Amino acid sequence: MPSNGIPTREEIVRRVSDIVPLLRKQAAWSEENRRLNDETVETLAAAGIFRLRTPVRYGGYEVDTATLVEVATELGRADGAIAWTTSVYWIPTWISGLFPDHVQDEVFATPDTRVCGTNSPTGMAAPVDGGIVLNGEWKFISGARHAHWQEIAAILLRPDSEPEPIMALVPISELEVVDDWHTSGLRGSGSVTTVARDLFVPADRVIPMAAAMRPQGLSQINAASPVWRTPATLVAAASGVGVVIGMAKAAQEAFFERLPGRKITYTDYALQSEAPITHLRVAEAVNKIDQAEFHAYRAAAVVDAKAAGGEEWTLEERARVRNDQGEASRLAKQAIDLFISISGGSSIHQDVSLQRIGRDVQAAALHALINPDTNAELYGRVLCGLEPNTVYI
User: What average pLDDT does range 90-109 have in this prediction?
Assistant: First the structure.
């Protein structure tokens, strides 16, 4: 470990690799109980995984995007829900670093602070003396049950001004948590709904959403760090893209662990490993994983290079990062589907991880910012010289 106490990428990835077997054992419990196991959270905290996007002055690591991709991939090998929840924490933790420095002092006062959140402005805010009053509900809040804070998006309505999207930081204890996460995929992520009812939020814990989208945060200290020079949507895209690749690698491992001795029922193939159809399908699946990694690491390389150089983003570069996330997800899902398709009827049993991986990647690919078709359309619009039809770019 370097003298500054921040572990290298290799050390962080090694820590995650070491805990993959333990995390896999806890995955079934998390799925059944629709949230992460407490021991899982403690294990991740001990490995420093919640510190990756915490400012260094609070004991964080401020890692680059390529490290997030590699760590998320390793976590995805363990369990999709664990990887998903962890990568989601990284994003609002990063957004917290855009708030005034004295607000960060409060947010990061707790060791291994976990911040959940969303960029979907489904709440309404009204100005009052000293801050705002917040009302609304936010769905799909992954990891809410283990979070300390929530980053909230809302629309601020002033009497004589246009409605303004804002972001706010709220202690999770001040929100109502609704137990409504009954889903077919990513069940262990505990992505419940949170509700605010006439909740007062001090003015210094509120920033314009545009400050994150550009970004032009209110932190004086973090302004000098390359980590906080990337538009929020692209931070989100590059932070989570490793999750689906990890799930695809988990499917690959699960398939080859079950392959020895398996036959193809109702055929003369006593060993599935000797059938040409098996050779064709596994080669196709692994090729797709390799292609997915290309898109993930290209996105990370662009984000890190632009941040390090402090260069302005072109519209095409922004759209391409979104597209890379979508293509990585498309290819990873296709690879998983291929492994499942040649795994036989026995793979639908609950104690076979392939069925859970298939459901988890389906859920991930349906996310509005990840959906491959949505991202491809956005990229195509920009390539054709049209303006994007979204502000999330």
Answer: 96
